[in-house]
């Protein structure tokens, strides 16, 4: 049995993770953490998730519960996630990170931590999107530099980072396949007198509206035809099931930085 602490347990993903853990054999929710100033501290995490009492109350200090979990699943916010990585590092615990919007320096800190603890870090834990990453590699290889490539994503109105972590990863997959550096070829939105499009760029467009769970399209457009690869998530459960699977997978790993391609055996 793998004992799991969920960080961000009162959030949209946190509540879905509590429900997913409850449905999955071999893993158990033992700790649920959110903000100290949340009015929900002390409530039953299962009741917050809408599945009835599970006997784990929402707490605010992960360090006070180190003896109660084997693996952390963290879907919260970048600075807080990094605090939890430090705690896991000090205590030799594994961590599954779904939080997006990390800076390059924060990603480097994860890499350093992964020298001593196991870390799964993925901007999208769903099976479908991880298959799409593979399809994008194939499309970029076949269509090469003869097409204009655009990444379009849409999410709910509460999302705080843009473009989404998934959109950025899609851009990286395509750029890496084509031997380009996304840092220098990405164009994030256009306005005014932009001039004609440079074929070597990869464009990003972001929509934030209503309750959209998560939609991503990569367009490969040539003269006369275009290929579009689209993924639409209609439930957060797809991400939560992936994260729970990653927590079980991580439990016997000693150290290393992994993503969902490793967990799903797609590498
Ligand atoms: N990898 C994947 O598959 C997916 C990744 N995500 C990512 O997961 C993250 C969370 O998304 P979502 O659940 O929608 O967001 P929410 O805002 O609904 O949930 C985040 C939770 O973490 C809490 N939190 C934030 N900062 C702290 C802190 N310093 N201390 C304690 N608690 C804190 C928030 O509290 P408060 O509301 O008070 O700020 C909130 O309850 C985002 O980065 C998102 O992009 C989302 C879906 C899938
Ligand atoms: O914030 C979200 O909701 C999501 N975030 C992830 C991202 O930034 O890619 C994954 C998913 O699309 C939902």
Automatic annotation (TrEMBL):
Gene3D superfamilies with a match to the protein in the record: Dihydrodipicolinate Reductase, domain 2, NAD(P)-binding Rossmann-like Domain
Q: Which family does it belong to?
A: Belongs to the DapB family.
Positions annotated to bind NAD(+): 8-13, 34, 98-100, 122-125
Query: Where along this sequence does the record place binding of NADP(+)?
Result: 35
Binding sites annotated in the UniProt record for (S)-2,3,4,5-tetrahydrodipicolinate: 156, 165-166
Q: What is its EC number?
A: 1.17.1.8
Organism equals Kistimonas scapharcae
Q: What does this protein do?
A: Catalyzes the conversion of 4-hydroxy-tetrahydrodipicolinate (HTPA) to tetrahydrodipicolinate.
All copies of domain Dihydrodipicolinate reductase C-terminal, residue ranges: 128-264
Chief subcellular site? cytoplasm
Query: Mind telling me what this protein is named?
Result: 4-hydroxy-tetrahydrodipicolinate reductase
Name the InterPro entries for this protein.
DapB_C, DapB_N, DapB_N_CS, DHDPR_bac, NAD(P)-bd_dom_sf
Q: Which residues form the Dihydrodipicolinate reductase N-terminal domain?
A: 3-125
Q: Which residues form the active site?
A: 155, 159
Its localization reads: Cytoplasm
Assembly and interaction partners: Homotetramer.
Catalyzed chemical reaction(s): (S)-2,3,4,5-tetrahydrodipicolinate + NAD(+) + H2O = (2S,4S)-4-hydroxy-2,3,4,5-tetrahydrodipicolinate + NADH + H(+); (S)-2,3,4,5-tetrahydrodipicolinate + NADP(+) + H2O = (2S,4S)-4-hydroxy-2,3,4,5-tetrahydrodipicolinate + NADPH + H(+)
Give the lineage. Answer: Bacteria, Pseudomonadati, Pseudomonadota, Gammaproteobacteria, Oceanospirillales
Highest taxon in the source lineage: Bacteria
Its UniProt pathway annotation is: Amino-acid biosynthesis; L-lysine biosynthesis via DAP pathway; (S)-tetrahydrodipicolinate from L-aspartate: step 4/4
Q: Which UniProt keywords apply?
A: Amino-acid biosynthesis, Cytoplasm, Diaminopimelate biosynthesis, Lysine biosynthesis, NAD, NADP, Oxidoreductase
Q: Which residues form the signal peptide?
A: none
